[in-house]
Amino acid sequence: MSVTPEPSARPSLQASDVARYVDETAPLIGLPIPPECREGVARNLAGLLAAGALLADFPLGDTETAPVFDP
Amino acid sequence: MTPADALGIAADIRARRVTAHEVTAHNLERIRARDPSLNCFTGVLTESALRDAESVDAALAAGRAPGPLAGVPFAVKNLFDVAGLTTLAGSKINAGRPPATRDATVVSRLRGAGAVLLGALNMDEYAFGFTTENSHHGPTRNPHDPARVAGGSSGGSAAAVAAGLVPLALGSDTNGSIRVPAALCGVFGLKPTYGRLSRSGAALFGISFDHVGPLTTSVRDLAASYDVMQGSDATDPVCADRPTEACLPRLGEGTDGLRIAVADGHFASRGEPEVFAAVEQAAKALGAERRVTIPENDRARAAATIITASEGASLHMDDLRSRPLDFDPMTRDRFLAGALVPAALYVRAQRFRAWYRERVREIFREVDVLLAPTTPFPAPRIGQDMITVAGEQVPARPMLGLYTQPLSFIGLPVISVPVAGAGPLPLGVQLVAAPWNEAALFRAAALLERAGVAAAHIAS
Fold it and tell me: Which pTM does this prediction carry?
């Protein structure tokens, strides 16, 4: 369920940058990425980061979303 | 001949025109004959179903009340716990786990009402998909055209109902997974308000958006099954502590006093013409002339996608680390990518969710029921990656959630009704209400059914 976001004011992500992020970040959290998944993971993560870019500059004012925790 | 709906079957059994055993045996035989080509079921409970049916017959013979769904055959998406069965949730990984020791709360409530469980149904792995093209268990085929998908992730549930294998099935819906297959298979589907029905004993996916609900061939069955599943549940922290608000008694009320409008903008673009024609058909029958605009739906989808991927990955992190290649290739890369989303994006998406909820709350001060299409096109072919819709080539699978994802994002109650004669393949229209106002949806859906606009398509 990835989305195709609208163009953002931010510079578009380079596929090679996302692949490098995957290569460098995944081992740090103990998540080995099988070689046959590397391209697909980078492509999907690029979609998720682009979705995030759609939200980055959107004005949310003082919208508060602290989780309600009942001790 | 159109098979009877669930309440019709229950009435026949109570009146002793047929026994629960005969009904169960008939449905088991239909599953044996039809399911090999459709692939709805991942497990059939022949012995326990016949035993349960005999208990219903024994209760009737002894003069005991057998429950409102006495002898009604049903089946559940295989992410619901069923005592004695391993809860697969569409995966190969879970197949190595021990069987569940008790039923999920909603399964237990349906059984308590006399319904007879026939088995467990196919789905996208861990509910992460809209098509039920499951690589481990095979794709579920659309009963109206077996070359096409049933929709997903509750595809086995929708197809089993549409093929007349069971009159009632349970599904779950995180971004559209009840409504999309209900629409593509031509049956009714309810995604209630977030927190209305207990998720206890259901394998979760996106914990912020997971809902459970029924799929049926009639509005009254949707209401009857929903009514018996309602109620608080101490074993589910998300389930609201609210009294049952029975909807079955309200189906005849009509829509007088309900303010009904059509959602435009996002919900009136990027779909095939017959999709919008179906919405107009429903709008005309309901006398809905007003148009309202929900803002920022693409951002709502973006935020829902980030939250779903992050929460889904988090739930499966141990298996993603230790055995990633045992995941379905259809979900694996998306789960792995979800594990790498920066936390700040996730929190931002949750903040956007609160913003979007406020805008939609403002709309529901002026309107009681909104109409929108369920999907932008009818069922794609199995294996189809791209589709041309409104003149544009788009990825077929994610686009199926175009109109459903923003609504589950904020937990609104929605009924997807199948629209009669919408085209050669089934299509659905969503009826959407403010949180906790399922009753308004049922009144509108029942009116559409009486007017002949909404009708289930049962494949012979």
Answer: 0.97
Flag whether residue A33 sits within 8 Å of chain B, measured between CB atoms: yes
Residue B1 inside a domain? The answer is no
| B457 occurs within a structural domain | no
Q: In this structure, are residues B167 and B6 in contact, taking their beta carbons and an 8 Å threshold?
A: yes
Task: With a cut of 90, say whether residue A59 has pLDDT above it.
Answer: yes
Number of Cβ within 10 Å of residue B391's Cβ equals 6
Q: How far apart are CA B357 and CA B451, in angstroms?
A: 33
Q: Is the pLDDT of residue A64 over 90?
A: no
Mark yes or no for CB contact B303/A43 under 8 Å: no
| B273-307 tens-digit pLDDT | 999 999 999 999 999 999 999 999 999 999 999 99
Task: State yes or no: is B91 an active-site residue.
Answer: no
Distances (CA, A) of B295 to A10, B359, B410: 22, 7, 13
> Catalytic one among B108, B157, B172, B177?
B177
Q: Is A10 left (phi over 0), alpha (psi -120 to 50) or beta?
A: beta
Angle among Cα B401, B392, A47 to the nearest 5 degrees reads 50
CA nearest neighbour of B79 among B112, B45, B110, B107:
B107
The structural domain count of chain B equals 1
Pairwise CA distance, residues B126 & B328, whole Å: 9
Residue pair B376/B389 in contact by the 8 Å Cβ criterion = yes
CB contact at 8 A, B142 and B186: no
Flag whether residue A37 sits within 8 Å of chain B, measured between CB atoms: yes
The ipTM of this complex is 0.95
**Is B177 among the catalytic positions?**
yes
Annotated catalytic residue B225: no
Spell out the SS3 assignment of B105-130.
Answer: HHHHHHHHCCCEEEEEECCCHHHCCC
Residue of B nearest to A39 (CA): B333
Summary mean pLDDT of chain B? 97
Instruction: Assign A63 a pLDDT band (cuts: 50, 70, 90).
Output: confident
DSSP letters spanning B46-103:
HHHHHHHHHHHHHHHHTT----TTTT-EEEEETTB--BTS---TT-SGGGGSPPBSS-
User: Domain for residue B356, yes or no?
Assistant: yes
Residue A9 backbone dihedrals phi, psi, to 5 degrees = -70, -20
Compute the nearest-CA separation of A54 from chain B (Å).
6
Comparing A63 with B41, the larger pLDDT belongs to B41
Inter-chain CB proximity A52 and B345 less than 8 Å: yes
The whole domain housing B54 covers: 6-450
Pick from A31, A44, A49: CB nearest B320: A31
**Cα B433 to chain center, whole Å?**
17
pLDDT at residue A3 greater than cutoff 50? no
Task: Read off the CATH number of the domain in which B77 is found.
Answer: 3.90.1300.10
User: CA triplet B26, B160, B235: central angle to 5 degrees?
Assistant: 105
| Span B368-424, pLDDT tens digits | 999 999 999 999 999 999 999 989 999 999 999 999 999 999 999 999 999 998 889
